[in-house]
Amino acid sequence: MNASHQEGGGFPAAAIQDQTARILASPAFQKSKRLSRFLTYAVTNTLQGNESALKETVLGLDVFDRGSGFDPRVDPIVRIDARRLRARVSEYYESDGASDPIIIQFAPGSYVPRFVPSAPLEEAPPPNRRGKAILREPKVFKKLGTLNLLRQAQKQLEMYTPEGVIKSASLFERATREDAANDQAHLGLGMASIWKSVLLCEASHTAMARARAAALRALELESAHPEAHALLGFVQGAYDFDFHAANASFLLALRLNPASLRVRMIRALIFLAPMGLLADAIDEVRSLEKQEPSQLRHKFGLGWLLYLARDYSEAAKKLEQVLKINPRYLQARYSLGLAYEGMGEFARSEELHIDPAIQVAYPLVPLRRKMLQHMRKGDRQSALEQVHLMEAQYSPGNIDPMAIAGAFAFVSDHDRAVQWLERAYEDRRYWLIYAKSDPAFDLLRGDPRFAQLIAQMGLAGGSREAPAAS
User: Fold this and answer.
1) How far apart are CA 189 and CA 196, in angstroms?
2) Highest mean pLDDT range out of 75-79, 104-108, 165-169?
3) Whole-model pTM?
4) More confident residue, 373 or 98
5) Dihedral sign, CA of 340, 326, 186, 31?
6) Which phi and psi (to 5°) does residue 354 adopt?
7) Yes or no: is domain 276-359 CATH 1.25.40.10?
């Protein structure tokens, strides 16, 4: 049937074609010829009544030029780009197309577009029980509201401060309530929850449970979602200490989207580095930083990995770059202080750790500083007194047992150091995943109890067995 006469959803074909042309002319589609081809093919075949062409096997041949051997069970390209297409179309209607009369929709799992009218702004609101009108927010305004929440939440998250992370989690959670089918809202809530655990804003047990639930919900919405698999892998590594399961999730995410820099970054930090593959992790993050030099997470991650590799000078340079861009990045400030300690530049370390903001996020820093001062003077007894004061301040979820364990290791009390590492294991503290390489525990390397803990976490043995990302 001729497309110029065929109607879709009650609209003339010409009107739908005009709407398609507006979408294709938008900046998001101008940059992607393949998604433009996908949308054009889907709309054209639907208007022609040829929906049988909108199957995964046919799309692989006609749109993606995969050839006669295309098997969607092995190559998920159609599903991946269908998700990207839905996201781009949704973004268009949340911005340039907010006032367009026709909405082109793709339901999850379907490649057949639907053509529906946009919600009229002057639609008569339904009466309530008392017969009074209830104002109904138009659908497009709800989408814009959710998009605005996501932008605010991401901005707060990327401040990398306790205040920012708490605000971010609250905004992402609100976005999930307003649009329960928005995968980005669930993924954002998952990452914000992880950061709440890392920055001691919430106990790991509750924060990581929320992150896992967020990843699983995103996978319910889209089973081939690379970032959802990566988020699940993050929880499997940093909370379950199941690094091989985590790596399987990361490799699956990379098969779904080999170009994802975020997934590669998470795998480097949550699998390669904990397994002791520091050289591989450093090479990977260096590559990511070259591709995205403006991303602070790459610079901080590289600085931290260099610190674990005892390259304190290079670690300090990288962490200084982070603080030059974002002076409030507390993890970078704290880690830079550790790098200066490794270089023997204690005055510079103390200058960083005296910062009041650091002492709010890391309340044991003042006592730790005094402990180090006593040890440099050779007064172990006074240093040990400071460590006992650190120990007395512990409370689950608010004080990091890793800091106490490191302090006891520094004053050569191996028994208490191991006990506090075991407490860190019970609390599921994030930083414990780096114990295999962390310089703070060098004095414990020969202790069989430390080796037992490393084995309990699945980090013992040869680390070259780890498979490389495809």
Assistant:
1) 10
2) 165-169
3) 0.69
4) 373
5) negative
6) -75, -20
7) yes
